[in-house]
Amino acid sequence: MPKDTPSRWDRNMQQRLAHGEAAALGELYDRFASLVHGLAHRVLDDEDAADQITREVFTRIWENPEAYEPKQGPLRSFIATLTHHQAVQRLRQTESAALVRTGLGTTEELERRVRHASAAARADYIVTSMPAPLRAALELAYFQRRDYRQTAADLGVTEDEARRRLRLGLQLLSTAHDSGTPPGRFGSQA
Questions:
Q1: Residue 120: CB partners within 8 Å, gap ≥ 6?
Q2: How far, in whole angstroms, is CA 135 from its chain's centroid?
Q3: CA–CA distance, 190 with 179 (Å, rounded to integer)
């Protein structure tokens, strides 16, 4: 399938939502609620706020299914972008209100916190979205402190392949701090 062709599931889901099919919303929620909640929690560091963002994201999708354009990319990326935007907006609101209320801190510190939370959420999204072979190599290298030789042995691949997977995985992760439009448009609305 060409890279710019939306998946059949994504197109079908968008059409079902546009027709007001409640079962479609349930399927969408089952598939992406943990992604939405995890990203929101990563940005906001608040369970209740993440729950609220999760409800808001799915409500917004239900009320505006035409906002998703399958030709723009995967539905997963659209949902992640929407979640990111909502969570960053909420973080700015709550932190700005705290800044005004307490007088402690500066707008520069606020923006630094927002950028940090945004980059951390983006890194989480990148790791969970990368192909399993890349993710497995990074997890072995990072969490189990394996070098590329040990990683190759654990994965049953050549050392060159292990190095390639680690390099590509790290290159993908390095985009978490980019201020430009990242893969899947994630972060473009921050």
A1: 42, 43, 176
A2: 15
A3: 10
Residue whose token pair is 């995967």: 74
For residue range 130-172, list pLDDT tens digits in order.
888 888 998 888 878 889 899 999 999 999 999 999 998 888 8
Distance from C-alpha of 154 to C-alpha of 178, rounded to nearest angstrom: 32
Q: How confident is the model at residue 5 (pLDDT cuts 50, 70, 90)?
A: low
Phi, psi at residue 81, to the nearest 5°?
A: -65, -45
Rounded to an integer, what distance in angstroms lies between the CA atom of residue 119 and that of residue 116? Answer: 5
Is the pTM higher than 0.90? The answer reads no
3-class DSSP string for 53-94: HHHHHHHHHHHCHHHCCHHHCCHHHHHHHHHHHHHHHHHHHH
